[in-house]
Amino acid sequence: MNPATTTEAAPRHAAAIAALDQTTVHLAGVRLAGEVSDIVGPRSFLHAGPPIQTGDLLGPMRAAAMGALVLEGEAADLNEAGRIIDGGGLELRSAHEAGGLSAAAGVISPSIPVVVARSAGGREAFAPLHEGNDMPLRYGAYGPETLARLRHLATRTAPALDAAISASEPIELTAVQAEGLRRGDECHNRNAATSAAIVLALAPALVRGDGELAAAFLEEVAENNQFFLGFSMAAAKVIGDETHGRAEPGIVTAIAANGRHVGIRVSGCGDRWFTTDAPLGEPRVFEPHTLADACPLMGDSFATEVMGLGALASSAAPALASFLGADPLDAVAKVSEMRGICAGESSRFLIPFEGYRGTPIGIDVTAVCQTGVAPLVNGGFAHRTPGVGMVGAGVVRLPLEPFHEARACLAANTDDKGEVTAWQ
Amino acid sequence: MNPATTTEAAPRHAAAIAALDQTTVHLAGVRLAGEVSDIVGPRSFLHAGPPIQTGDLLGPMRAAAMGALVLEGEAADLNEAGRIIDGGGLELRSAHEAGGLSAAAGVISPSIPVVVARSAGGREAFAPLHEGNDMPLRYGAYGPETLARLRHLATRTAPALDAAISASEPIELTAVQAEGLRRGDECHNRNAATSAAIVLALAPALVRGDGELAAAFLEEVAENNQFFLGFSMAAAKVIGDETHGRAEPGIVTAIAANGRHVGIRVSGCGDRWFTTDAPLGEPRVFEPHTLADACPLMGDSFATEVMGLGALASSAAPALASFLGADPLDAVAKVSEMRGICAGESSRFLIPFEGYRGTPIGIDVTAVCQTGVAPLVNGGFAHRTPGVGMVGAGVVRLPLEPFHEARACLAANTDDKGEVTAWQ
Description:
Chain A is of the alpha+beta class and 424 residues long.
């Protein structure tokens, strides 16, 4: 250590906090997954969560893979798609391996449009463009309407959005998220105001492109108050990856689930996933469904919690509580609990109702293990049966096991007091 | 009273609460004031607040009147406009006399575009379409850019918006306001999310009209996070007037100020204004201005407080606090204080952070007098010097005098316990 700096103790996890707090992310484009990732191909798709064998796929994720095989023209129908999967003809990899995220039970095939986000330093990541809420692939729908909408997204909407992005002033996604917290969004399960904001930001250039296409898009997207989610996730993945590369050991840089397993990635532990059985929690289940209908946790969108949004910003989005079956009056307490396991606070993601206090950032594996307090995440739940769709939403507490495993992995980097040393 | 209903005591102020709580208001159009009101003419303008003599006009309101005379072609320049006013050649009436509202220091001349709102029962009211925040007429700016923008609004934007409204599905303004509270707006001094919402609602039809005009409008309006204010005010005026006509005596149905005087109108007291000197309060003043630069309270936008929004919904809009120089942590206490002087609670304007409790509605003159707690309103302040613009914003407590005067007026309707009787 430089003697000149020893008079001031460097704050614990300073590099992690800097990466989480200061990485600005801009919108780079909306492209097809096949153009963005080399490992996405006609029979090579991406899924959410830690790696999973095709034989282990739960109903809705298998359904999404079947639908995507038909979408790509690899299968004439869903039956043939099922046979391709059962015969080992489809390769499925964790989206994280491709530098992106997938959504819930959905898969990413070459013609799925993805939002591409980029840091000031040039790091890119992607996440699926939101399909809408009526029978989406990401909750295991695979019927003709679902595939027709995806085709329209790929052939019409995505190119128009990409051209509009190129023609517009740069859009800082992290700034849209920060303003979102002032507009009642937590930028994971509530994106009502941020969806309107990103659409308005792109609208002038969209309209100057194909006017009738723009009008139809504006009409459809007005119904989709989660449209921003893909943008938020892409930004979150950039920041999670940036933090993974720069943080001291022991900071959670990814949280993801595939319905079988939930996993975390931790700085200092490389690409390893620490996993356990995916939890279900006690979500609010939409009638006429029951809790027994719901698959356990799925999705990569918990990247937003990694960056200090989602459940870690609950007190900015009290109106989300009724959707999640939670009490808005508990929101500050929830965030306060998360502060106890985080290494710092954001200086840009400010919660007006907490006197503009920053959201907690940098989930600290050591703090989780020492306190026994596991992170909360906001989540949506898919029906176990293919083709049914979303059945519920809720705040879910992650299991502690992956954190204890990660701590064991970090043990090689601990000092004699059991603290993870920061600068090895 | 019908004997069949005497077993349940009718709630106090039931008719007022019903009018305030259940009057739904839709967007009817955007038109020029001269088309909407017979009493608006080339030399007959409307102003905010209780009636005022032209000789008593404060700087910015006089400046707005001068600018409007040039806008209408009645004066070749501002000097001539001043001479017209000084020579008694301009008639100025309270906008309330025309069934509308004016904004801050602004005036309404025939070619000023106004938002027209309409209740389900057919009651209409209007308020100026928001000009933008760069040197607007409503804060006493009267230069060429200000007038050019108003001309563009009148000749291009207003007709396009009106056509889009006709071509779109009906837009319920009261529903936009209710959703606004879930998105951090109080729909008076903060309209960031509601502005985006109303623009998005009209965008498809706008784009299907003149595409390039639509693109330019979408570009400009993205900078204007108060665009919804005129829509919110027009809805508020409909509800204030509906309540005035239906409420039991003693409910505040208008709050307005002209810089000299602030006044209230009260159900049961006809068209009479109860007035006193306009307050200034302790607003946050934008640098480089000082408090001495600011005119006392002006404007008709306190109609939003009458309907249970604005300061009465502070706890829905914590992000407004920094703009107003207030503490977001005080917001619930402020609303709680207002609950003590209101006759009821809204069942549709719900504050997520208060567990979806409704905003207080129906400011009760008797309760104000008995408690000594005067209503709070959110306000913006104009520079005393013509042409300078907005210099500050703040939460202002109304003076008590008008409420005591109103109570004296209501005395003819009181019983021997000093309570205002509700059903005379």
